Amino acid sequence: MWEKINRMSVQAVVAVIAIIASFGLVFALLFKTVPDGNKDLFNAMIGYVVGSTVTAIVGWLYTTSKQKPN
Q: For a FRET experiment, which of 12, 27, 51, 69 has its CA 20 to 30 Å from that of 44?
């Protein structure tokens, strides 16, 4: 069974988990109240987390400088 799992499928699974987790964090914002004094800081931090997660995953999956798996 483990022979069928190649490097690309593992990368795709990790990418999907990371995207779901980061957008789950955004979705949790809908149900959690944030104090007004911290709202701007909290929104900026959520934006940084989601943006860096998506950027890292796109860079990890689609860079041309990677070697092809054997």
A: 12
- Residue position matching structure tokens 């914002």: 29
Distance in angstroms (rounded) separating the CA atoms of residues 35 and 62: 39
The answer to whether 19 touches 53, Cβ cutoff 8 Å, is yes
> According to the model, what pLDDT value does residue 16 have?
84
Q: Which of 13, 23, 12 lies closest to 50, judged by CA?
A: 23
pLDDT digits (tens, 9 = 90+) for 35-52: 888 888 888 888 888 888
CA 54 to CA 70: how far, in whole Å? 27
Instruction: Count Cβ neighbours within 10 Å for each residue of 34-53 and write b for 16 or more, e otherwise.
Output: eeeeeeeeeeeebeeebeeb
